[in-house]
């Protein structure tokens, strides 16, 4: 009987040899649990992320913007479904995963607990939030778990469109009337720091990074991805004449990166722990939607069981 420690050594050798781990492969329970945690919370983030943007579908400034925003929000629903399906390959049911969100046991990205106050917020979300998500998700296309990596490939293609349309909104506003430019700057001021928080705590504070890197769930750390995002986004802000709200932001020739101010980790944990501006509103919306959809789930289950009984009787 192969000892667990031999199995673990074999597993690590597969990871080190860049082999993808598939659902039927042996994996350490901690590897599986870590993935269930991350993939399910990623899925929750996609679905909850539809709410702040959905808030502006009926108020988009013209038909073109409305059609683009509709498409983006629908994409996010699809991303959630890919990720919930990837999660099911790890042996957890869809119901239990959704229940973890609705009961407050599971997290979703802190960023979605901020309000969308003006149309420029829709630009800032596409540009900054989807921009940050892309940094992370492109890295995840190389994650060691097969179904997760493959879901990421599809999601990243759509995410790039999300980021471009957001940046275009901000570029158009910045070239518009002074009030429009002021609206874009206000949105950047409010969304910049929460977007940096999306990458998670500093590596030194991260509960999972070391293990996730060892198992190549993560290929780059929270701080590495955050730095890449800052270096790229600051230049994009300059191109459209907006100012990043960080007085300590300064190009460091030696490092080849931007130095930046410290993130307000008290705010971060406050939002993660449920006390952000919109946490209650977001959870209420998800719980209500789940309740309103109960009859659809029950009808689909009844139809499926009738079909199975008919097949068994034939
Ligand atoms: N919001 C909420 N919780 C966060 C967080 C955030 N921004 N950043 C970290 N956390 C939580 C972690 O989940 C963990 O808590 P847990 O143990 O209860 O799960 C704790 O803080 C410690 O953080 P770690 O850095 O140790 O955790 P990870 O190693 O999991 O790293 C992560 C955090 C980088 C977010 C990682 O989970 C990850 O890469 N997740 C997949 C990507 C993702 O979920 N992105 C969210 C946005 S999706 C999106 O934006 C969709 C787009 O279409 C708009």
- Strand order, main sheet: write it out: 1-2
Distance between the termini: 44 Å
Helix content: 55-70%
- Determine the mean pLDDT: 97
**Major β-sheet annotation:** 2 strands, antiparallel
Bound molecules: 3-hydroxybutanoyl-coenzyme A
Order of helices and strands: HHHHHHHHHHEEHHH
Structure commentary:
This protein is mainly α. Helix content is 68%, strand content 2%. It is built from 13 helices and two strands. Strands 1-2 form a two-stranded antiparallel ribbon. A hairpin with a 4-residue loop joins strand 1 (250-252) and strand 2 (257-259). Helix 2 (29-48) runs antiparallel to helix 4, helix 6 runs parallel beside helix 8 (178-197) and helix 6 (119-140) packs across helix 10 (222-239). The structure holds 3-hydroxybutanoyl-coenzyme A.
Protein topology:
Layout: H1 4-16, H2 29-48, H3 50-54, H4 63-88, H5 94-102, H6 119-140, H7 146-174, H8 178-197, H9 209-214, H10 222-239, E1 250-252, E2 257-259, H11 265-275, H12 279-292, H13 294-313
Antiparallel strand pairs: 1-2
Helix pairs in contact: 2-4, 4-7, 6-7, 6-8, 6-10
This protein binds 3-hydroxybutanoyl-coenzyme A.
List keywords for this structure.
single chain, 314 residues, mainly alpha, two-stranded antiparallel sheet, 2 strands
Summarize the structure.
With 314 residues, the protein is mainly α.
């Amino acid at each position: 009987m192969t000892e667990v420690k031999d199995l673990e050594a074999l597993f690590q050798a597969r990871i080190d040899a860049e082999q993808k781990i598939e659902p039927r492969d042996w994996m350490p329970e901690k590897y599986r649990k870590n993935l269930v945690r991350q993939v399910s919370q990623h899925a929750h983030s996609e679905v909850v992320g539809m709410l702040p943007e959905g808030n502006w579908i009926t108020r988009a400034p013209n038909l073109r913007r409305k059609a683009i925003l509709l498409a983006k929000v629908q994409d996010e629903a699809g991303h959630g479904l890919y990720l919930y399906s990837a999660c099911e390959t790890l042996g957890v049911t869809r119901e239990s995963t959704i229940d973890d969100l609705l009961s407050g046991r599971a997290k979703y990205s802190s960023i979605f607990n901020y309000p969308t106050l003006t149309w420029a917020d829709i630009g800032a979300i596409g540009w900054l939030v989807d921009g940050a998500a892309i940094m992370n998700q492109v890295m995840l296309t190389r994650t060691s778990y097969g179904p997760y990596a493959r879901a990421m490939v599809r999601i990243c293609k759509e995410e790039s469109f999300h980021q471009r349309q957001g940046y275009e909104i901000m570029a158009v506003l910045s070239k518009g009337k002074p009030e429009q430019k002021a609206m874009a700057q206000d949105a950047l001021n409010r969304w910049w720091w929460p977007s940096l928080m999306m990458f998670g705590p500093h590596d030194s504070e991260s509960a999972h990074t070391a293990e996730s890197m060892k198992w190549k769930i993560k290929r780059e750390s929270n701080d590495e991805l955050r730095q890449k995002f800052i270096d790229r986004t600051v230049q994009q802000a300059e191109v459209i004449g907006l100012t990043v709200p960080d007085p300590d932001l300064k190009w460091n020739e030696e490092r080849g990166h931007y130095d930046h101010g410290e993130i307000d980790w008290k705010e971060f944990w406050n939002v993660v722990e449920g006390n952000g501006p919109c946490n209650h509103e977001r959870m209420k919306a998800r719980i209500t939607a789940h309740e309103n959809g109960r009859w659809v789930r029950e009808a689909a289950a009844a139809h499926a069981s009738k079909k199975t009984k008919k097949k068994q009787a034939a």
